[in-house]
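**User:** My hope is that you can spare some time for a protein that puzzles me. As I understand it, each token names a local backbone shape. I would be glad if you read both lines and explained how they fit together. The protein I mean follows directly.
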Amino acid sequence: MTITQDSVAEPVPPYDAFARACPSRTTLEHVMGRWGGLTLSALHEGSFRFNELRRRVDGVSEKMLSQTLQALERDGLVHREAQPTNPPRVDYELTALGREVADRLLAVVHFVESRMDEVLTARARYDETRGTR
């Protein structure tokens, strides 16, 4: 534990994502990668069947979405429920932990979306000065 000037102990987190062997790195990859972040954000809207989710996350392949959902389910962020119907029906939704993560992700998503004019201006300026694009 770390002691502050007020002699109040602050707990030290047991995990450090900056450490090479920290298991949180894998979860961060799942959550913060393009498809993981978009999948979690989409599922924040509610339960989806696989193909509905694939349409919502425009551009993701069936294989990538399947791998992403499996990783997020393994991390405890997504719940997969298979209905015993013919044909089989599978629904995906966020767990309580997944909803907390998605809440935080969506704050970033909305912030970035709201500032895209500035980002696009910065990109154009960068490309102009570097002679790219």
In short: The first helix runs from residue 24 to 32. The helical segments are 24-32, 34-43, 50-56, 62-74, 96-114, 116-130.
